[in-house]
Amino acid sequence: MDFITVSKDDMAKRGWSQLDFIFVSGDAYVDHPGFGPAILCRLLEKHGYKVGIIPQPDWRSTKDFARLGKPRLGFLVSSGNLDSQLSRYTAAKRIRHQDSYSPGGKSGYRPERAVIVYCQRLREVFGEEVPIIIGGIEASLRRFTHYDYWSDRVRPSILADSCADLLVYGMGEHQIIEIAHELHQGVEIGNIQDIAGTCYKVPNFDYIWDYIKIPSYDEARADKAVFAEAFKIEYLEQDAFRGKVLAQQNGDWCIVQNPPAKPLSTEEMDEIYELPYARTWHPMYDKDGGVPAIEEVQFSITAQRGCFGGCNFCAIISHQGRIIQKRSQESMLREAELFTKQPGFKGYIHDVGGATANFYRTSCDSQLSRGTCRGKQCLSPEVCRNLVADHSEYIELLRKLRAIPGVKKVFIRSGVRFDYLLLDKEHGAEFLEELCEHHVSGQLRIAPEHISDRVTRLMGKSGRHTYLKFVNKFTKVNNRLNKKQFLVPYFMSSHPGATLEDAIELAEFIHEHNYHPEQVQDFIPTPGTLSTCMWYSGINPITKEKVYTAKTQEEKAMQRALMQYWVPANYQLVKKALLKAGRNDLIGFDKKCLLRPERKNTANNKAVNNKEVNNKNTANNKRNMHKNNTKSNNSNNNRRRGR
Question: Residue 368: its pLDDT value, please?
């Protein structure tokens, strides 16, 4: 298995004295199509370029950044598969102790704001003479003025902040090949200004024409209403077919965004996912036990990209877009057959899907010619009359995968959009039947996120009625199949619009349906999403309505605790929330109550409690004495028997 060049020794083995491109990545190097740097490096290799990669360089000095020398055409910089702030901090802004994209899953291998730090180090070593192109999720979502939750302030475009020359947003395959071609032809990096899916910088608006002007960084950070208006302009122009050129002044630089890159064709998707990947981590990580992030994707199949689900808290709209781009069945069958020949494959394909597993076609037939509708969603708050809900191709694909010799089971884990399933009148019931019979192992994870109609509308999700309708159908199908399988719903606390009353409504729903969510997701305002704009500004930028947001640590903690009201450690928080909302009726012994009343800590109760503790300690001591005696007797017996 040949890996991408990571050292001077690798270059010498290939007879290379200089590389064309060097990719600096915040992730450990895993040569698998589930990792963006591997895809782009392999694609450049296929087009004849000499490529190296510096994964997780030590940013505390410049030494690591110079280890592959000076590239002929430029540096490519990415924080990795996650925004570096999100990978480092929790929703409560506590430092994470694990990083699945690093060796052994340990944290600390990448800096905060990795893209900015890496670019600064490269400039220290190579000055202005080598082009720097930034991309990946961190650059993509921070391409304009944005709110940064971790510093609690509005920050300028990362292109202005990082001293890079060019920014690639989106997945980047079309852009990177066009940029490489231009640079190879001798075009100066500052003159590369016409590639879709890129942002470049000029001193001011006099250098551009035919554009939509966005309120500046200074204006947006001074006024939340202006910030919301700026976001609205960006959000509505995120379409490859109808999007316009946008421009925003960020300090000394005017950031210009070209419209998004066109969706990849099926042939292009097949090409990308069938490049000669080693499909594992680089051997340099063997001593650390590898890179944990590969475990979920190693034997998973990416069927498509993009999502028309319209979840307002999700970054996929800004990064992959709303138009579905799918692979051919033949390509995915070849990948599955490849799995059966790989070491470690035990017959289980972990997933077949993408952002949403059952979106295996565009939401309507005209999207690939005219783009998406401006200012309208496909599923929420109302279902578009042009939406085509059809699972027939996906069902056919799953049947073919199950039939491959060596494949025991094919799971679907990337999420099923249940409201879309219910809309498919012809094949929806058939898909649900096959899903329950063949592709679920005891539990199916789905994401209603909330059940308050006020909150789900602001989330861009379907409401309580739709969710309960799906639950009913799922239960009936499993009863008919004689299978004991359960739904594991994901819920989110503190999303914009969610009041304490909404959180209590959700807690009552969880109690009524006897759910016990093990993990609770607190809303994290990540850059570039509509929900984050609402969270920061208090305004829905699309409708201009005022939106309540829970921002104090106490209220966020109460909303989170209500979702796990039965946990003893949450008792006081839940009680406080109920009393604050005037819901004393939920504290008591009634069937509907979330909490039992506290026992009064009287002297009599203390005496009773102390007596119980003493009795318990006495019983424990007796048991321990018995165990020790038994252990001693067994030891003596073993010695007698010569053991």
Answer: 86
